[in-house]
Amino acid sequence: MQENFQYYMHQCLDLAKTALKAGNPPVGAVIVLDEKVIGSGIESGRSTGDITNHAEIMAVRDAVKNGYSDKLHLSRMYTTHEPCIMCSYMIRHHKIAEIIYGTSVPYVGGFTSKYNVLSAEDVPKWGSKPKITGDVCVEECNELNTQFLELLNKL
């Protein structure tokens, strides 16, 4: 299964590179159902001026647009970064079954921060928490973060 994680995470990394080229944080996400990508997204909050345009949200919007809104609860999401609190809420709302991410987001991550929305089990109607795997392709994800910080320092 770890091989599959690498395969889809490399797709996320390609999307993250596209986000970075547009001046956004290097985040890419894909949603997979039955080994098929049903939605993808790139971080575009900075370039569009819309803070809700996180890669994970864009991937869900894409999957919904592609006709998979009723199947999201059976899917897996891959993303280069741990989903933030906002994205984690959306993941829980749609009951996405599994999250695989690259690098942690310590202050506002939905799993590793004190705001662990992804693992909360006391919210009515959210059901079971998703299965979560982190640190997949973490070195590559962190390298893109370093490039983004260098870009910010030049501005």
Question: How does this model look, in words?
Answer:
There is one protein chain. The chain is an alpha/beta fold and 155 residues long. It has a single domain (5-147), classed as Cytidine Deaminase, domain 2 (3-Layer(aba) Sandwich), CATH 3.40.140. The protein is 40% helix and 18% strand. It has 5 helices and 5 strands, in the order αββααβαββα. Helix 1 (2-21) packs parallel to helix 5. The termini are far apart. GO terms for molecular function: hydrolase activity; zinc ion binding. Keywords: Metal-binding, Zinc.
Largest sheet: 5 strands, mixed
Cα shape: globular
**Which superfamily, in CATH terms, is the homologous superfamily?**
Cytidine Deaminase, domain 2
Number of strands: 5
How is the largest sheet built, in terms of strand order? 2-1-3-4-5
Q: What's the pLDDT, averaged over the residues?
A: 95
User: Which topology does CATH recognise?
Assistant: Cytidine Deaminase, domain 2
Report the structural category: alpha/beta
Could you list the spans in which at least 5 consecutive residues all have pLDDT below 50? none
CATH class category name:
Alpha Beta
